[in-house]
Design goal:
40% helix, 4-stranded parallel beta sheet, 14% strand, 16 helices, Rossmann fold, 4 domains, alpha/beta, 18 strands, Hect, E3 ligase catalytic domain fold, Recombinase family protein, 5-stranded mixed beta sheet
């Protein structure tokens, strides 16, 4: 800096310009106060006991003689986190780091913006230690600059000047260099993330598992495909069934799809026999609770790996705060890569049940809320036929109603004018009794179903064709054996004879494979075919729905898969039950208990009931009946 002319210095002192510390005087020697800021990534990738001291030492060496470190701030966390959630990690407590810690990045910013702070400069080893994102890094730098604190980096050239220096510090080149480094640092991280993503995607498509094997499977170690890593003893893992836990997984899906049990109801059943149903163990065994919980059941029912496909990126561990990612972002193996425990159709059925019962309490009785005064019989079963939403219960005076009241901006076209409407519970119950006692438990229920002659003929044709195919497969196998024996009868078979035998054997094998494929198709069709005989497995009798205890009613309706839909415009309520082989036994048990109460009620009150015109339909899973509600007058 050029010296100030002596006449000007004297004139300044004489006129008290700037006082005793006039800016025209040469700056006095001062000690600059500097705070250290450091950061390492997650503890499993770096050693903070070495990284933090190295960063501190680098900053200390880079400072001039008239500067001293007076405070130390550092964190152990990812540099890609948003500033709002930075500096709150307690990971540093797990290590004996030989550098005193005054706090993290948040503590640094708070002190910098406070009067009486201990420092005027902040120094880091390199600018990417502040953040791996340019936006966050420049935001921190701007906040410090706004309160007069300059951010330095040990690997960048800098000079420190006192506040009395009359010439502005030149930082243009330093800013350009810093911004380029920040951009390069962010580019490097993004490039590594993209390459890592692609690597995990290929890893998944090849059938290799990431992390702990899910319940029902165990990890099967295989050689690493990379020779260098294989030489070091590194391995990859695939999934193979755990014979002890496979039946548990299958039972969970069967209960969910067959009896439509809630997560907690399944957990309660499993907990009755923890020997046959061993509880899952989390990644950290110390956090194991030793029994089944609703969340552990949900984790199994929502895991698509049980279909034989390998799936990755179901959760955003860092990018989405460990929440479930959209299904469109999941990475699937194109084909099954390990043995499936359940088929994909059952998995999808379980997901549909979750969508139908979402935010609906499955337990019987009153809601545990202290202000609850009553329960509603059709809770979770009744839906609006116009928009598909569940109708919720509401009491007017002493009567129970169900209402569909969509928000104004969410009303679908065709929804009744005015948006909301009511229907009385008593009317729904009366017609439900008619439906159950005629179409489900009535003596003539089978005849009420539509004509099934075409279906019966198709079934007979499938049975005939199945029998023919099985005989053909056996005969083809016998013919191939006879061909092999024919070679033994010829002492010296020539080449042409052997060729004919091989050609004929290949033809038989091809025919046998074709018949086997057709047989499998017929057997699959038989499983999903209409089966009206299922309804004959239910008992015959009289049921009075309102006389059933809430727990029994819900057990019965869940087993029957009862669906009730109300249409305001057509003034019509539709009842539907679905029977499948897995639920008939449960429905039969619940119905037998309900019939006892129903017969007692019917004996006292008589079998009377409203005259209704019934319209029956058919479904591949069981009977459907639409009952037009005669005389229902919804509340207005």
């Amino acid at each position: 800096m050029a010296a100030v002319p002596e006449p000007l210095r004297g004139w300044s002192r004489a006129n008290s310009i700037g006082g005793e510390d006039s800016s025209l005087d040469e700056p006095a020697s001062v000690m600059h106060r500097v705070a250290f800021i450091g950061r390492t990534s997650t503890a499993d990738l770096q050693d903070p006991t070495l990284s933090i001291p190295r960063q501190y030492s680098s900053c200390e060496v880079a400072l001039p003689d008239d500067a001293i470190l007076v405070a130390s701030f550092y964190d152990i966390e990812s540099g890609r986190k948003d500033l709002a959630v930075r500096g709150y990690s307690d990971a540093h407590e797990q290590f004996a780091i030989p550098v005193f810690r005054d706090g993290g990045i948040q503590d640094l910013l708070v002190e910098a913006e406070r009067s009486g702070r201990r420092f005027d400069y902040v120094i880091c080893e390199s600018i990417e230690r502040i953040s791996r994102r340019t936006h966050t890094g420049t935001n921190i730098e701007h906040r410090l600059e706004r309160v007069g604190v300059r951010l330095l980096a040990a690997d960048e050239p800098f000079t420190l000047t006192s506040a009395s220096h009359h010439r502005k510090q030149k930082v243009a080149t330093q800013v350009l260099t810093r911004r380029v480094k920040q951009g390069v640092a962010e580019f490097y991280v993004l490039e590594m993330l993209e390459k890592s993503w692609d690597g995990f995607a290929v890893h998944t498509e090849a059938g290799f598992n990431v992390g702990k094997a899910c319940y029902g499977y165990q990890a099967k170690l295989v050689q690493h495909p990379v020779p260098a890593k294989r030489a070091k003893g590194q391995k990859k893992t695939r999934l193979e069934p755990d014979i002890v836990r496979v039946p548990v997984v299958q039972t969970i899906f069967r209960w969910r799809c067959g009896e439509r049990l809630s997560y907690q109801e399944i957990a309660d059943r499993l907990n009755t026999d923890l020997v046959s149903n061993p509880a899952p163990v989390p990644v950290n065994p110390e956090s194991a609770v030793g029994h089944w919980t609703w969340s552990s059941v949900r984790g199994i029912l929502t895991n698509p790996k049980y279909t034989g496909h390998m799936v990755w990126n179901r959760r955003g561990r860092k990018s989405n705060q460990n929440r479930v990612n959209p299904v469109s972002e999941w990475v699937w193996s194109p084909q099954p890569v390990h043995e499936a425990i359940i088929d994909i159709e059952m998995f999808l059925a379980a997901q549909e049940i979750a969508a139908e019962t979402e935010r609906s309490r499955s337990a019987p009785g009153l809601n545990p809320h202290p202000q609850t005064k009553r329960s509603y019989f059709f809770r979770s079963y009744l839906r609006c036929d116009h928009c598909g939403r569940r109708m919720f219960g509401k009491t007017r005076k002493v009567a129970a109603y169900y209402v569909c009241a969509p928000k104004k901006d969410y009303t679908l076209p065709g929804h009744p004018t005015g948006g909301s409407f009511f229907v009385r519970e008593a009317d729904l119950l009366r017609h439900l009794n008619t439906f159950l006692n005629s179409h489900v438990f009535g003596q003539y229920r089978r005849s009420l179903l539509e004509d099934n002659s075409a279906e019966a003929n198709a079934k007979q044709e499938r049975e005939r064709r199945t029998s023919t195919l099985r005989k053909g497969i056996v005969e083809a196998g016998a013919k191939m054996k006879r061909l092999v024996r024919s070679l033994e009868l010829v002492d010296e078979p020539d080449r042409e004879f052997i060729a004919d035998v091989n050609e004929r054997r290949a033809e038989l094998r091809k025919e046998q494979a074709k018949m086997q494929a057709e047989l499998e198709e017929l057997e699959a069709a038989e499983v999903s075919a209409l089966n009206p005989e299922l309804i004959e497995l239910l008992p015959i009798g009289y049921i009075c729905a309102e006389e059933m205890p809430d727990s029994l009613a819900r057990t019965l309706f869940d087993a029957l898969r009862l669906e009730v839909r109300y249409s305001k415009s057509r003034h019509r309520v539709t009842y539907r039950v679905t029977l499948v082989a897995d639920t008939v036994a449960a429905a039969k048990r619940a119905a037998a208990e309900a019939l006892v109460a129903g017969e007692a009620h019917n004996g006292a009150a008589g079998r009377g009931g409203p005259a209704l015109s019934l319209v029956t339909e058919r479904d591949h899973r069981g009977p459907i009946c639409s009952v037009p509600p005669a005389g229902i007058e919804p509340a207005t």
